[in-house]
């Protein structure tokens, strides 16, 4: 039995990392300390200045453990590694806004390639980025491959293993054909180094090379080649102009980091300055920052972000001084293998760049908040509107049903589920009607609803026997409202089923006008008009369309299966395996009809006698 009071007395007065566990032994928080004895004990003292987030976390602590290290720097490194490993609930979590593209140079290969990737691998390749535009990345790769004639194929190329002849790219002057031994790995890598120089921000060398090649080709009256180099030169100018802004404060590499936040969330913006030019930017969301200062938000970001970034510049510019600047600089310098400085500029162009990053962060935060508000209006807001409109409180889960058939052929039913105004596609269900022949939508709906709720009761019983909550079943969760795709008739069918099964769930009909558009809702025997511009109406329309789509797709799939089966089922000697062989070997049924018996036998690899039966089946009118 873990006794927190006794264990607190045993804490060493040394640097280290501590891990807080809850009653289920989940790690809910990881922290570092210069003095474990003082830091961990502070969580269990009565204090008035704690944030609600920390109070919640402390109330869940069931036990703690700690790891002693030799220095604060080691504690910082270990803390970051453990947070990445366990992703604790109460640590500040960093989330990428999206997956940005990187440029990968496979320098670990004898003949490297340049490609675009979305994630950095744990390999010996070089990565550049992240870039904000995938189009720009494609342009850069195309430019470098075209200029330095680098390979783009997926072959495993190494010296001594040669192909008989080069591919088309070689003949077009787009590749040096290392696969045929026309260039050594050493010479090839010189061109790769020049490409890497360009991505490091040294574009003058590439511009000069392209200009020289263009002029030389022109002097030799090789105008086609000159035009190609001129186009490459124009592409290079366009790419460098589009991707960068000038920073006249110097030509070193740096990241500019700034943030904006409200009461609960923050956005951190990072500008990438390489060789004095901004080559890209990105933003990150930081969750649950209530009670944190600007400097604390930035400190958490810097520690989390630079643990996983492929490149650490020698300078990181920030709008605020960090409390742990010295120790973070030491840690980053060790990871980089060279000096790293955290700089807080107070005047001039550098300060303006930090201000620009902060303004961008504020803009992203505002846009994201507006997007979230808009989304909530469409979902939760629409549910609240609907709840008021039909005077039913506590609406969360909606279920809608629809029937689809073609003149009574292959009757099917659909059930779609919406929770908090959003579709829950994993809970959708489809029904193949068993008891109804012909076009009788009311009888079909009676069967669908009966089966849905009978199955729900059976599942509830099974879950109860296993002491499992109803929320974890497919059918055991019943809706707060049933939506029927129709008016009084459909609603009465639903009410009849519910009465037979002794279930009390409100039912709402979606009444249509003569043009098959929803004009109102039918509830408790009364038609209620609905504003066609309201979010509730838009939600009803989405639910209706989804139920209709899901039913039609299921009906269509069954119809296609039936048609495919019926074509072959009467042909002697053609069973399931030979049907599959036929459909694999021919694009469609028309292609089988057009084939001779010999062609059918050869392509589908079936006996000639069976192929002849198939041919006769499709050509019997002509015999």
Fill in the keyword field for this structure.
623 residues; alpha+beta; GIY-YIG endonuclease; Nucleotidyltransferase, domain 5; 5 domains; eight-stranded mixed beta sheet; six-stranded mixed beta sheet; 19 helices; 46% helix; 18% strand
Sheet having the most strands: 8 strands, mixed
Here the CATH topology of the largest domain equals: Nucleotidyltransferase, domain 5
- Total count of domains: 5
Give the CATH superfamily of the largest domain: UvrC, RNAse H endonuclease domain
Question: Shape, please?
Answer: extended
Rg, rounded, reads 34 Å
Q: What's the total number of strands?
A: 20
Helix content: 40-55%
Distance between the termini: 90 Å
CATH architectural type of the largest domain: 2-Layer Sandwich
Percent of sequence in beta strands = 15-25%
- How many separate helices? 19
- Average pLDDT works out at 82
State the low-pLDDT regions, or none. Answer: 242-251
Structural class: alpha+beta
> Which CATH first-tier class of the largest domain would you pick?
Alpha Beta
Annotate the secondary structure layout.
Elements: H1 4-9, E1 16-21, E2 27-33, H2 36-42, H3 52-60, E3 63-68, H4 72-86, E4 94-96, E5 102-105, E6 114-117, E7 126-128, H5 134-148, H6 168-171, H7 185-199, H8 204-219, H9 223-243, E8 254-261, E9 266-274, E10 277-286, H10 294-308, E11 315-317, H11 325-336, E12 341-343, H12 348-390, E13 397-406, E14 409-419, E15 422-423, E16 429-432, H13 441-465, E17 481-484, H14 488-500, E18 507-512, E19 518-523, E20 526-529, H15 535-568, H16 576-585, H17 589-594, H18 597-604, H19 608-619
Parallel strand pairs: 8-11, 11-12, 13-17, 17-18
Antiparallel strand pairs: 1-2, 1-3, 4-10, 5-6, 5-7, 8-9, 9-10, 13-14, 14-15, 14-16, 18-19, 19-20
Helix pairs in contact: 4-11, 5-9, 8-9, 12-15, 13-14, 18-19
